[in-house]
Amino acid sequence: MSSKHKLRQLIKNENVNFDDLRTMLIAAHPDDEVVGIGSLLRYLKNVQIVHVTDGSPRNMIDAIKSGCTSRQAYAKKRRVEMISALNLAGHKSPDCISLEFIDQEASLNLPGVSLRIVELIERMKPQLVLAHAYEGGHPDHDATAFGVWAACRMLQRENKQTPDVVEFASYHGNGSNQIITNRFIPDENTEVVEIKLSNMEQNLKKQMIECFRTQRDVLSEFTVKYEQLRNAPSYDFSLLPHEGTLYYDYYHWGMSSSRWLRLANEAMRVLRLGEN
Ligand SMILES: [Zn+2]
């Protein structure tokens, strides 16, 4: 049975044994896994969680607010928070690795991110990869979506096996600086599955989110009532993810949409990936 099929059964609350499904969850920051797909984590028994960044920006603004005196200390604090949240989902010794790109800088390293993901997929041979969508919400999320897409394209090019890729929603803008959380940018060609969380699942997810004390203000914007999933659509990274101004264009996260496009096109050239 394909992992997509299994996932659909799980979403429909059918009795599926996920013990044998090798899953890799690839997220940009420690907390994206819980915000995006926290309710599913307790079902995934054979899951490796990969973070592309260390969650600690170079500018130290958030680190200092959290009482940390170094970038490394803040990264460690965020990792400890994430492990606590995974413990609550039944992962007593979670299998987590970080690619350790600096937070807010993954999009400056798109070929590097992509090649590291190729290496991981070749080594771990996951059947299913859970990943960010291309949303224009945070440049590191888009860099992660690009990395997963590019890795699969490179593996296909070499006739190597590729995993199914299922996406979780994080956030995007509505064309102004208003945030839309836990929902994908509407795409009439891609079916979206919305998981309604039971009261028990909502309570557990709330507790998991509370573990991220350093992110408390940001995470208050996210719902615990539902999560959206979909099969990764066929992207064209030479285009922006939606019309109008992207959410991160309103913030000082070191990236603008025009710069992102230049970087994505350059990375596709370097990795010899044609349009779509
Ligand atoms: Zn994030």
Give the CATH topology.
Answer: Rossmann fold
Shape: globular
Number of domains: 1
- The helix fraction, in percent, is 25-40%
- The fraction of residues in strands falls at 15-25%
The ordered H/E elements are HEHEHHEHEHEEEEHHEH
| Sheet/helix structural class | alpha/beta
What kind of sheet is the major sheet? 7 strands, mixed
**CATH architecture annotation:** 3-Layer(aba) Sandwich
Number of helices: 9
Average per-residue pLDDT, rounded, comes to 93
C-alpha termini separation = 28 Å
Strands across the major sheet, in which order? 3-2-1-4-5-9-8
Q: Could you name the CATH homologous superfamily?
A: LmbE-like
CATH class: Alpha Beta
The unique ligands bound to this protein are: zinc ion
In total, how many beta strands? 9
